[in-house]
Write a structure and sequence with these properties.
The chain has twelve helices and 16 strands. The protein is of the alpha/beta class. It has a five-stranded mixed beta sheet with strand order 1-2-5-8-9, with helices on both faces. Strands 11-12-13-14-15 form a five-stranded mixed beta sheet, with helices on both faces. Strands 3-4 form a two-stranded antiparallel ribbon.
């Protein structure tokens, strides 16, 4: 019985020990699970912390990128506006003179490179026959073998020589062909270079001799070489009148579109967008007016600076804009600025310090009051009235030999012609007694209200340049007659002093080109001006100065 009780106790103890072991194992498992859960949570917290840090860093980098982009846009905008505001000042330090030699093509002539053709083929060599020794020479068989081998080597050598000579003949022929083609290429290239250099020399000669086309071409090249922003049209037409040393420029101006509409940029963080601030309309209009004035002054400066031969005494600048009339949909080309100035008058200006708009006003220029609306002004002198190409075209169309030569008219006929011309132009004319130099004095009346009034017209049939004394005479007549305007017409041209005296006065000077244009446009008369070789202009009553 006691043994049974002890056995049961042992079983109970074993069961309790097993239970304790099981529970201990469960505790270890739970502890391990908690440790794993804690480690997992710490890992997730670390990952989330890193994600938050990365997101914060990403947002910061994005913010910095947007702010940098905004700063870059502002910097580019300010640079663009600064370049528009300094169109004149930026050009003052440039050397506008064109060295004719620099226009010549610098091109190397092709080099003689025949390559492998210049190297002769290597001449074949006779393969030596192995010499017999003393005992071999005593052997008839060896001697025969030696002889046959020597003959075979000689035969192969002769064939190789024949082949070599054929290849050499072909090489030399190819060399001769290459040499002939090379010299032909060199000759053609040299002729091309010589022709281009001769063109430049002819160009230089025409400019040096003050040829009208030569001077116009040189001045055109100067203006086309001027460095403007890419969106500026920079198209120009130039005509030169040697008699009066006057250059007439028709220049294409940019539209107001070249001015940015934005004044600045700001990055709005909460909207994540770059917003622009519009430039005030008044500021944009003022800048456009300044641009037009700067281009006019810059063009005058570039021509006077580049013309080191002093062929140009007077410049007429007319600035136009090609656009569309939004009211009609038709193409229009209004003149927005026109000015005439002389070299002496212009060199008195300090362009580094002037206000472009006020400077043009001081030069008695006409500038559009509303250039942004393309309000036109009347050109000082129409380009078509002096452009030699205009006359040449009329010559072809009207058969030059059949046109009326104004220099062959009698003084009375010339007086009537001028009188009739201004009648056709809408003036009420009264012809006066002819002056002794064959010209005509005509008193006319412009019937238009406000702009009209009494007009004194004088004409000079001259071959040479009309001097300042004729302009002084006209001004005196204008004052004596109490007229509102004076017009001087000549078959030739005017000197710088004449333009200087007329500047700022109610006097208009029309040269031979103007006269031919007005006759064609208003009277339908295709005329020409060809003075006889023995023509002598009358001496002026007042000495020139």
């Amino acid at each position: 019985m006691a043994r049974k009780s002890s056995f049961l106790n042992d079983l109970a103890k074993a069961a309790r020990a097993a239970e304790r072991a099981r529970k201990a194992d469960l505790r270890r498992q739970e502890k391990a699970r908690r440790e794993a859960e804690r480690a997992r949570n710490e890992y997730l917290r670390a990952v989330e912390k890193q994600r938050v840090a990365n997101e914060k860093e990403r947002k910061q980098l994005y913010l910095e990128m947007q702010e940098a982009l905004t700063s870059e846009k502002n910097e580019n905008l300010q640079n663009e506006l600064a370049s528009l505001e300094s169109l004149l000042s930026d050009a003052l330090s440039e050397d506008n003179h064109i060295d004719f030699e620099s226009l010549k093509t610098v091109s190397e002539l092709p080099t003689f490179q025949p390559g492998a053709l210049a190297k002769p083929y290597e001449r074949p060599k006779l393969r030596p026959t192995q010499e017999l020794d003393f005992f071999q020479k005593l052997n008839p068989f060896a001697r025969g073998q030696y002889k046959r081998e020597a003959e075979r080597n000689l035969e192969e050598y002769n064939k190789a020589i024949e082949k070599h000579e054929t290849k050499e003949i072909q090489r030399k022929q190819a060399m001769d062909d290459y040499r002939e083609k090379y010299y032909e290429r060199r000759k053609l290239k040299q002729a091309e270079i010589d022709e281009q250099h001769q063109e430049i020399d002819d160009f230089k000669k025409r400019y040096s001799e003050a040829d009208s086309e030569g001077v116009a071409e040189y001045c055109t090249l100067v203006l086309e070489s001027s460095d403007y922003p890419d969106d500026f049209p920079q198209t120009v037409k130039v005509a030169y009148v040697p008699e009066s040393k006057q250059l007439v420029i028709e220049y294409d101006l940019p539209k107001i579109d070249v001015i940015p509409e934005d004044q600045s940029y700001t990055y709005v963080k909460n909207k994540d967008e770059i917003r622009s601030k519009a430039m005030p309309v008044s500021q944009r209009k003022a800048l456009y007016g300044s641009i037009i004035s700067q281009i006019a002054l810059r063009t005058l400066h570039e021509i006077f600076d580049a013309d080191r031969a002093n062929h140009v005494d007077t410049i007429v600048f007319n600035g136009y804009v090609d656009s569309i009339d939004l009211a009609t949909g038709q193409e229009i080309r209004p003149c927005l600025v026109t000015v005439r100035t002389t070299r002496d008058q212009f060199k008195e200006l300090d362009l580094e310090k002037v206000d472009p708009t006020l400077c043009l006003k001081g030069l008695n220029a006409s500038v559009s009051r509303k250039p942004e609306e393309l309000a036109p002004v009347r050109p000082v002198l129409e380009f078509s009235m002096v452009d030699p190409r205009f006359v040449e075209e009329a010559d072809v169309l009207s058969e030059l030999d059949n046109r009326q030569n104004l220099m062959e008219l009698t003084p009375f006929e010339f007086e009537n012609l001028i009188t009739n011309l201004f009648q056709k132009m809408g003036l009420e004319t009264r012809q006066t007694q002819s002056s002794r130099d064959g010209g005509v004095d005509c008193v006319a009346y412009d019937p238009r209200p406000i702009f009209g009034g009494k007009v004194v017209i004088q004409a000079k049939r001259y071959k040479g340049t009309v001097g300042v004394s004729a302009v002084r005479d006209l001004f005196g007549t204008l004052q004596n007659e109490g007229a509102s305007k004076g017009i001087l017409v000549t078959t030739s041209g005017y000197g710088k002093a004449a333009f200087d005296f007329a500047s700022g006065k109610p006097i208009e000077l029309l040269d031979g080109g103007n006269l031919l244009h007005l006759l064609a446009e208003h009277a339908g008369l295709e005329a020409k001006i060809v003075p006889p070789e023995d023509w002598r202009d009358p001496k002026p009553d007042v000495p020139e100065s």
